[in-house]
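User: I'm curious whether this sequence folds into something compact or stays loose and floppy. Could you predict its structure so I can see for myself?
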Amino acid sequence: MGFQPGLSFTAAVFQNEQDIVRDDGAGGSESLETTIEGFETEIKGRITDRWRISAGYSYLDGELDNGNTPREIPENMISVWN
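Assistant: Here's the prediction. I'll summarize afterward.
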């Protein structure tokens, strides 16, 4: 069984590490290492001659080197464009 012509499916699994420099509240700065792991899937394309869709799901799991979870990282995200 395959996809209908005009539809595509993509998926990605990833791990991203970055350093964040922020104000320490005492006039200096501190550096934190962030690790983000997750995956994304998306299906997009033409359902009919007059109907296009793009739908995706992302799962992210992030952690700072001090053990906290970054607040800017949504754990689950769903998008549907019709």
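Summary: The chain has a mean pLDDT of 88. Strands lie at 7-23, 29-48, 51-64, 76-81.
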